[in-house]
Input
Amino acid sequence: MLFGELIKALSWPSVEATLMMYFPKYQSSLSGFKRAFNMLQNLEPQQNTDTLKLVRIDAENVDVTTVCDGKEYSITIAPWNEILGNRIDAQSFAKFSQPEIAVFVLWELTFYGFDEETIRKKTDEWLKDLK
Output
């Protein structure tokens, strides 16, 4: 299943409940997460051959990466339409529910902002500071 298919199959209430189960301290950010979720539901996935992989680090932390040509990459600044086109690996489905997968990917995608424009601006600032 593609991540984009998973996002379209889920409702916000199931994602919100799972989000609050894992990240209760972020209740004040629910409107931002909901906005990002709605954006993801409305974006057209970019077809690719990459795979989303989720690995539990400990009780509270899950590592989410995209696997491309055998190498793993962070998704925190990846274009959202590319992530929507990633296939979710079978081991992730075996270990996590669909709402959990959506929440952990949403968490990573929104780590630097609740929309791609905000994330792009932060990335541009970092690149400028490196010069």
